[in-house]
Amino acid sequence: MDQDHSSVYKPLQHDQIRLVKFNRDGGTGGQTSAILEPFPLQGPVPPYHALSYTWLCDTLGVAAKNHNTIEIRNQRLPVLDALQPFFHALNAKAPLLDNTWWWIDSICIDLDNVEERSQQVQLMGRIYRSAHKVVFWLGRQSADQDGVIDFIEILNKTIRNQIHSPEEIRAIFQQPEYEPRWAALTGFFRRRWWTRVWTLQEYALPTSVEFWYGMRSVSRTAVDGALMAGDQCTGAAFKGTLAFRHGFNRRRVQRLYALGQGTRSVAALVAYGSCFESTDDRDRLYGIRALATDSFLLKVDYSLSVEQVYLNFAKSFIDYYKSLDIICFASLYSAASSGSSLPSWVPDWRARVDPLVVPLMASQSAKTHIGNLRPPEGVSQSSDLPVCYAASKDSLAAYEFEGSKLVARGTVLDTIDGLAGSRNSELVQSSAPDSTHLEYSPSAILKSVSRSLVQDRRDRYLRFAMPSEEFFQDFMCLCKQSISEATPLPVPKEFREWLDWTKPLRIRGHSFESILMDSKEAEFSSKSSSSAPNLDEFIMNTFFNRFFDTVVRMSLRLTVTHSGHIGLAPAAARKGDLVCVLYGCSVPVLLRQSEFGDSFTFVGECFLDGFMEGEGLEQPDLAERVFCIE
């Protein structure tokens, strides 16, 4: 806003908000007029509607502008162009103009006042929870989406009635005549509102909500039902779209919030929302704060730069939890890729990442200080989970901050020596001597490889240990079928490609291919086709599902260390990276020593078979070291 609006915006007390009421008669010259009044959130506040909308017009590339005004106290207050269609809809819904108070952020907050803006954002959770109703404004309805609200209602009714099985629902709605309706539904979820970081919490927090799409309205319950139907109709083009994920992710978060189950850490929420858009990158953290159970780690302050907000949050996490697990996110959200000034150990949340429910081992279900947003039915108390990565045992972080540097204590387990090739990376051949202190046993090596590929876990939420014999047999069966000239069973191309990239990698002096051949008679599974491994990546708790998660979705690479240990490393790993255990970090991490040896760069977390439960700290020959991570 270019001019002084001090007479419009009177100073607010600490716990106050402003509400706006629109007048039916309008202002001078037909100008829309309104009343803007402060109210205490904890005091007598009238019932009000809160508006959830986007500041940008729904046409891509059109920036937020305020060519229009409303009249308040005989002054003209600029309002966002994106609100004009909403005002038209509001005028058409005449009863809502009769004594209805509204909370609309760009009108009710003095955005030029940095201190007020910061304070009001801290109240967002209470504002949306206290609202009599929250309206989700999606904008004008597109001409090609006529009837989409009716289709949403049909899908919801079909799902809620529970008359039809999933197979019957697919048979009904995957008929060709429904293709235009699925296309319209995809367009509904492509509206800009669904892409914004802020609307993640705005979808989840309120109890009474309604979508407005042009002149039509629909309940959140109906939209949830349509998403459930879309999830079951796997053959419809809708489910595989980003639009579907935008809606389904919000539904997941809303269910977790409504049930009050488990923890919802800032780190897990911001990672889960990393595909969403934000005009101000500070809002990648601020915009999910009201959902988080550890929101106290994040003080809203718009006077700070983006980098300072991210750095302060990482420091606050480490100080409060005495854990270094937060730094593991820096491999996915890398400062180097964005060219920012952040140190390598601080996640740069500006990176756009296709979100996974469990993006890292540090997101394991057993540790609630990060945790993950698994479905409500999969949430249990962490003490009920039988397994937990604990590479540093129960030690607390031993660290100091020197400006933006993290000085941490720990130990070096080993050094990366070889890395299997991948779709985006060439093979890095190991160069360690043929003989190491580890025995050459094809069976032991292959079992270690199978454990590494699934990170020794049965499920993607990392709750249960890998069923060793079952998964090993599945792994060997896939290997056998991949190299067999006569292949009675199909092998997914993802596994064939991985095997081709991995065959040349030398482990303890022998290529992976020769290790397979050496074990062929003794170790290859003799499974019949009736007990062949499940090859559907969407069926959870199978070897192939876990392989698909780690190798395909997470782009992790099989690695061998100088001492011959086997593990799984991030795509950015290099030969010579140090495999370290830092006190207060649940998993081993890779550090890259600087040219002069006096500092280190953080690379990412690393699975190292045999060292995930503190075994490294039990070795007397491993000395404690201090790492200055820049």
Task: Produce the secondary structure layout.
Blueprint: E1 16-22, E2 34-40, E3 48-52, E4 68-72, E5 75-79, H1 84-92, E6 101-103, H2 105-108, H3 114-122, H4 124-130, E7 133-137, H5 148-161, H6 166-173, H7 179-189, H8 198-204, E8 209-213, E9 216-218, H9 220-232, H10 242-259, H11 266-272, H12 283-286, H13 306-321, H14 335-338, E10 399-402, E11 405-419, H15 442-453, H16 468-483, H17 493-502, E12 506-507, E13 510-511, H18 512-518, H19 520-523, H20 543-553, E14 557-561, E15 566-569, E16 578-582, E17 589-593, E18 600-605, E19 607-608, E20 624-629
Parallel strand pairs: 3-6, 3-7, 7-8
Antiparallel strand pairs: 1-2, 1-6, 4-5, 8-9, 10-11, 11-14, 11-16, 11-20, 12-13, 14-15, 15-19, 16-17, 17-18
In short:
The protein is α+β, with helices and mostly antiparallel strands and 630 residues long. It is built from 20 helices and 20 strands. It folds into 4 domains: 16-137, no CATH class; 143-259, no CATH class; 266-380, no CATH class; 399-629, no CATH class.
